[in-house]
Amino acid sequence: MATVKTSHSYLEDLRSKGKALVKGASSLNGVFDKEEARLKRADEVSILIAVRRTIVEQVRELKHSETLASYGHSQANLVLFPVGLALTAILSKNNLPSAIADYLRSGPGDRHRPFGTVMVCVGPKGLPGDVKAVSISQSARDSNRPQAEIMSKLQDDGYLLFSEDPFSLLIDKLVADVRQGKVCLPVSRERLGEIAGSNKPRSRIKIVPIE
Question: 144-172: b or e for each residue (b if 16 or more CB lie within 10 Å)?
């Protein structure tokens, strides 16, 4: 009889220890899950910061190119505009049509071509995989269209447009939300539009052409 009671106590002890182990394992699983989620958020934050670094560099390079292009255009006008005036004076004596004279008087090409407008474009796939810096001014010059038309076309094609500072603020907001577990990557274009819209005064597009 004593042996039966001893065996029963032993089994109960094992059962109790087994329950404790299962409970401990469940607790450890919870710890592991939390740590995995924390590491995932940290990785996503790193990705967002890397995206911002890349875009800032792209914007810097495009703005530098725009500065050089603007300077070259201005210098060309300074050199060739007087030549145009001289030719106009000479040709006017021969009663050339006014359209030709007006063209020569205006200088070589459009002296008011746009320079310096660089935007960050987030495409339909959202962040982090569908973002790039674009020189709106260069696209306008290349296509001989207004900058507003270029931007409207990009928006019609599904792009969100940001100037540099609002884009940086958007990344700051995303980083904070990712750390708090409110957002995870990838972030859709629609969600980005909502986030940008919730902070509209700061995310408004601001175009500052190079003088």
Answer: eeebeebbeebeeeebbbbbbebbbebbe
Q: Which two tokens stand for residue 101?
A: 């004279």
Q: What is the pTM of this model?
A: 0.68
φ, ψ of residue 44 to 5 degrees: the values are -65, -35
How many whole angstroms separate alpha carbon 198 and alpha carbon 201? 9
The C-alpha torsion from 57 through 62 and 67 to 72, rounded to 10°, is 140
Q: How far apart are CA 33 and CA 10, in angstroms?
A: 34
**Residue holding tokens 């339909």?**
124
Tokens representing residue 113 in the block: 């071509």
The pLDDT, as a whole number, for residue 108 is: 46
Per-residue model confidence as pLDDT tens digits over 101-150: 454 444 444 556 899 999 999 999 999 999 999 999 999 999 999 999 99
**193 close to 126: Cβ distance less than 8 angstroms:** no
What interhelical angle do 2-92 and 164-179 show, nearest 10? Answer: 180
- Scan for tokens 């509209």, then name that residue: 200
